[in-house]
Design a protein that fits this description.
The chain has 336 residues and is mostly helical. The protein contains 12 helices and 2 strands, in the order ββαααααααααααα. The protein has a two-stranded antiparallel sheet with strand order 1-2.
């Protein structure tokens, strides 16, 4: 037997209980925000370790024999080797699939290309695990007994699809956020490259200086520029360092910068003038994106305005008038 609420109710909901729950959620969110603000960590230490590891890999690649140089540049571990051997025995590894996943890992900021076999293993294991979990919960325990056969099958299919697409969606989401962060800082980085080129710095020194200047404001872009500066110092072909930058960043603007750098290296054209044209173009593009967002704002705000703001205004404006009209129609119960 359900006990009726003891306090005031609104649409059948206990107002005191709902207020208590919302206050508890707000307090928990505030504590979490304070904890996140207090325990924030500077990403510089992790970035320095990553760049130092890449520098050591390039040194090892230069000192190794030519036939073993490629293997020395890969961060191979026993775990990834075992996963690769297991997947190879099942005949599920394809070179094209591995290359595509490696590029997605690079776009998401993961330097270790050997993690591609781990992603493939996760796409094989997660559908089985989530599918079995859905079978146990939906058909075995029956957490939703009112569901019919069609809804239960949809839940089972959704679990399998989430397990198969989950790793890919995670990488795509992280790569999209990282690309957006790099896009925001690229015009400033190109301006600094122009200043460094006009000051007489070499290309690798210019990239290193820009990485130091923009490392805190745009850490993703600082990582890429610092890594490019390291590769320019160690790789035998400087073009390969620029192509690696375009490979790691899924952005047309970065490919334009890479093309400009390669052409200036090959033909000896002035670097500062070419980068100045690119910087102006990138800033115009950023201004156009801002104007596009501003033009979309009225259409986006229409639905929230109709659903949430106008009803409140109607209640505030017409509420007192409605109360006065109701009092005049009913009349004073003490009169007469």
């Amino acid at each position: 037997m359900i006990t009726p609420p003891s306090g005031p109710t609104l649409l059948g909901i206990d107002v005191v209980l709902a207020g208590t729950v919302l206050a508890g959620i707000a307090a928990a969110a505030m504590v979490l925000a304070i904890y996140a603000a207090v325990t924030v960590r500077d990403p510089m230490a992790r970035r320095v370790r990553s760049l130092a590891a890449r520098r050591e890999e390039l040194k090892a690649g230069l000192l190794a024999r030519p036939n073993a140089r490629r293997h020395s540049l890969l961060r191979r571990t026993r775990t990834t080797d075992r996963i690769r051997e297991a997947l190879a025995s099942m005949k599920v590894l394809q070179d094209s699939q591995i290359s595509a996943i490696q590029q997605k890992l690079a776009h998401a900021g993961y330097r270790n290309k050997e993690l591609a076999v781990t992603v493939i293993l996760a796409r094989m294991v997660l559908p089985i695990v989530l599918g079995l979990t859905a079978v146990v919960l939906v058909y075995g325990i029956e957490i939703y007994p009112e569901w019919g056969a069609f809804k239960r099958f949809l839940a089972f299919a959704a679990a399998i699809l989430a397990g198969y697409k989950g790793p890919e969606l995670y990488l795509s989401n992280k790569a999209g956020k990282r690309t957006q962060a790099i896009r925001k800082g690229l015009p400033d980085a190109v301006d600094l490259l122009v200043i460094c080129a006009e000051a007489g710095l070499t290309v690798d020194a210019a990239f290193n200086r820009v990485a130091r200047e923009l490392g805190r404001a745009y850490p993703e872009l600082g990582d890429e520029f610092a890594l490019t500066a390291i590769e320019l110092s160690f790789l035998t072909e400087r073009r390969q360092a620029f192509e690696n930058l375009a490979y790691r960043v899924d952005l047309d603007a970065v490919r334009g910068v890479v093309t400009t750098m390669v052409q200036t290296e090959r033909y000896g054209t002035p670097l500062a003038s070419a980068l100045r044209v690119l910087a102006a173009e990138f800033r115009n593009q950023r201004m156009m994106r801002a104007e596009e967002k501003a033009a979309r704002l009225p259409a986006i705000m229409t639905v929230p305005l109709i659903l949430f703001i106008l009803p409140v205004l109607f209640v505030v404006i017409l509420g007192p008038a409605a109360c006065s009209i109701a009092d005049n129609l009913v009349g004073d119960p003490g009169a007469g």
